[in-house]
Amino acid sequence: xxxxxxxxxxxARVLCGKADGEFEGVYIGDLLSRAMSRVEAGCAxxxxxxxxxVVAVANLTEPALIIxxxxxxxxxxxxxxxxENGITVMTSPMSAYEICCAISKxxxx
Amino acid sequence: xxxxxxxxxxVDGSDFSSAGAASVTVKKKLRQLGYSPDVxxxxxxxxxxxxxxxxxxxxxxxxxxxxxDDKIVIVLADxxxxxxxxxxxxQAGYSTAKDHIRNLGxxxxxxxxxxxxxxxxxxxDTVVGEGTTITMTVLI
Lengths: 109, 140
What we know:
The structure holds two protein chains of two kinds. Chain A has a single domain, classed as HprK N-terminal domain-like (Udp-n-acetylmuramoylalanyl-d-glutamate--2,6- Diaminopimelate Ligase, Chain: A, domain 1). In chain A, 42% of the residues lie in helices and 17% in strands. Chain A contains five helices and five strands, in the order H-E-E-H-E-H-E-H-E-H. In chain A, strand 4, helix 4 and strand 5 form a beta-alpha-beta unit. Chain A is globular. Chain B is an alpha+beta fold. Chain B is globular and about 45 Å long.
């Protein structure tokens, strides 16, 4: 599934990285030890956690992108670290549930 | 790749913003050395959990990694408080992390369970009041 198409569906704003790739599968979660073992490479990780440790977990697990739900944003230093590591981050006004419903619908089309 | 490649890191216990730095570096090095993505993922997860534990509980420590043809051994040594009840600490969901740590997304009580899950062998040497050394082996 294309990240760019997703961006429109979620009314999302790209905070860093590029929205031109593809993703496969989703993981939703804010507890980092859970995310660490469950985020698959190339997936979309939906979370409301936005601290620097999220960047470390993404660096190790390599999701295609991080989607911050509920208009959560990242502080400038966290974004700079994400940018430096080539991590795509977007934020959507939708809840994690709504985001996943939209992705599920997209996957079914 | 017949030699043993060794890495050593000082894990800074005072700075959550750099927690995970050693694991990320090891991941990059292992990739350069040509290990499979599965092995790299297992080492990364186990080492990250250990590294975070050292920052949360033990004010940092030393992380050493030895990578060879047949296995990768990760040794995490700290001079923290030690683990009074190892069996309890091993239980999924059990955590002694404080609220401010939980607010950062840690303290789910999945650290040690993840380390067991993703390694082939895990040994805990701990003395209360002196420190803990965790030795994890991932077979290739």
